[in-house]
Amino acid sequence: METDVLEAEIVLPNHFNFKRVQMYEKYPKGQARGRHWKHLKQIIQAENFQNYPPNEPNYVNIESPPPMHPCKRICDITGFEAPYFDPRTKLRYANAEVFKVIRSLPSDYVQRYLALRNAAVVLK
Amino acid sequence: MPFISKIERQSDYSHFDSTVPIVIDNGGSYFRIGWAGESEPRVIFRNIVQRPRHKTTGETITVVGDHNPALLRYFDCTRSGPRSAFDNNVVYQFEIMEYILDFGFDRLGADQSQIDHPILITECACNPVHSRCRMAELLFESYGVPSIAFGVDAAFSYKYNEQLGICNRDGLAICSGFMTSHAIPFINGEAVYEACCRTNIGGYHVTDYLKQLLSLKYPHHISKLTWEKVEDLKMEHCYIVPDYASEVRIFQKGDKGVEEKTRCWQLPWTPSPVEEQPSEEEIARKAALKERQGQRLREMAEAKRSSRINELENEIGGLEFLLKQLKQVEENNVLTFLRETGYASKQEIDSALAKAIQSLRKAKGEQIETEEKMDSSMAEKYNLVNVPDDMLTPDQIKEKRKQLFLKSTTEARQRAKQKRAEEELEREREMKMEEEKRLENPERYLEDLRAKYQQLSEKVEQRKRLKTNGNNTNGNQNGSGGVGRGERLNAAQRERMRLLTTAAFDRGKGEDTFGIKDEDWQLYKLMSRDNDDDEDEKPTEDEADLARVTSRLREIDPTFFPKSESGSLMVEAPRFRPLAKEDFQIILGVERFRCPEVLFHPNLIGIDQSGLDEMAGISIRRLPFKDQGLEERITKSILLTGGCCQYPGMAERLEAGIRMSRPCGTPITVVRASDPILDAWRGASVYAAAMQFPHQTFSRMDYYEKGEDWLRQYQFSYTI
Prior knowledge:
heterodimer; A: mainly alpha; two-stranded antiparallel ribbon; B: alpha+beta; Nucleotidyltransferase, domain 5; Actin, Chain A, domain 4; 20 strands; Vps72/YL1_C (chain A); Vps72/YL1 C-terminal domain-containing protein (chain A); nucleus (chain A); transcription regulation (chain A)
């Protein structure tokens, strides 16, 4: 290892005196291990929140509801207020100049703009 | 101001008694660790882990937090980016969490056989018990921690500010973090989680939105737009507007305020060296060089020609001499003489001579008068043509047929030649007439010609468009594929459609009989022929006319400039120009307030939840009992905390938003925490140093005796 890297101590050592179980003991090298963690979705599923009284706060029921006021539609490119909607690209746009721009955009850019507001076509 | 990590190793670990708790604020973006009772955390670093491979040895190493990127040049970071232990705001990857804790304890100076200090660690509100259990197990099993307490960061921050007198015992904490934002009401100094609410939006979303918008706007500079850089840009330039619509209108109209609201980031750029025009001398020198080269080539060709002429003349002389000799040779010696010379007969010598003479003429550049020769020999050549068939032998008949064929082709050729000559004359006459017309009234003539050109070119253009329409749809290459709205088919496609529809509908009554008769299948032949039609592109009459008019205009009109071949339909290709300073600027205009706007309208990035201003109202509505006095007390003390509330204009906007949803005349006070980022740790430090803290912790024994269900009920009490 290079000396400047060692001096900066950026590399985490394998062994720590203060640990009872070292990393290399817990996850021995060269041993295949499957995914050993649960994603948040799986964690929530396993919690069985539906079995608990609804007035008891839990991770799921403290989430905010959808907004009461409809969101202002803004132009996907410029951020201006967008009175128009292009049915072909599904982008919202503010004026004729922006329309010209969106019609000349390559389709992957269109999809990326749509993905910004989670409206892109997702192929599964 | 960009946040700077603090990762020097502490040396005074052994001075602390084992009863002094260690306080950890395990936040979504930063990890802070320090001693209870102190006012600042000892160690702060970004809550991420990278596991790159060494480029030469291939060894996988672990790097925790942010480091000087220059030091990572020895490692291949392309395969694994920075990873976080958090999914949303819940810790789920405890392997990563363990690396982070290792690094944190190590930098705090831990060197004994275990971490023999109680731990107070923060978690999110209503943390799922799975995550809480794993964290407790990790701390007990791997580090030998004697006891643990869990608390909520937003609550610690609120309580800390309450102690500072910034907010009251009843109030509301609005904490906007890295991945999520919470609104937590407090009654009598205790957090009421039944009434809290969470929106899954935070600083991460703002930075990500800004990063995406900028990389879509400046695709050439994507490499410059790293996460860290965009985060810096966000912290330095983003602000929150009181009213999005009116602010954006300023930009749309391009008022004079725009300039000062726009920020420009100049990327490093060095002007490319300007290419110097070659000097006069240089041009002259090059021309002279070219001339010399041409001269040499010409000389070489001349020399070759003269040598060839010389050779041919010698050959002819030789052959003539041979013939002369042959005349003098006696009859019976002819054969032996010929054998010596290598020729089979006298005719052969004759033909060789003729050939040589012809070549000589060619080399000297003389015209070969074959045609005339042909004329003179016409009579004897076609001697059989006028003789009736019955007077000839079969061989002669064959010969006659040949002659007839030859004669007719020659005559046809001559006729064509004559016609060409006539046409030439005609054209010349026309030209003369046009010239006269032009001389008569040059302006008028020019105008007529231009009009004609216009008309013709439009006609040709129209035809071309009809033929190719459908391939380039309205000049739009976004490749939505197929035939969409408002797009026309080209002629061939239209015809094919027609054929298909007639095939589908015309046969039988409600019964598909296509293919019973053999001629049904002719349809496909027709269709494919339609396609081939496009390919034979002979210039039509219009096109020829157009070419003629164009050349004429070119001759007489100096201002005339023919339209480009591709026509005006095509999008004008960007002309090449040297890159300028402006191409290396990243301009932040609307983005400065568009990105933080997602905190108030998560819908802008497709998250269907209420924004920060509505959350206050929701939280108050969720309170277990209705009490107007309490509600007023709560709205009088709204505390803003968390890294995401540092934007200028945040408090004003939030106050205006909350005022809209509360009854008229409600007193509303929104205050910012004394330090929105560190207050959570400081609050926790105060609680960990308090006398009652040991009662709030639980030990390894407690955990394994009472089990998960008990840990689910565990709640830190903030009222001492």
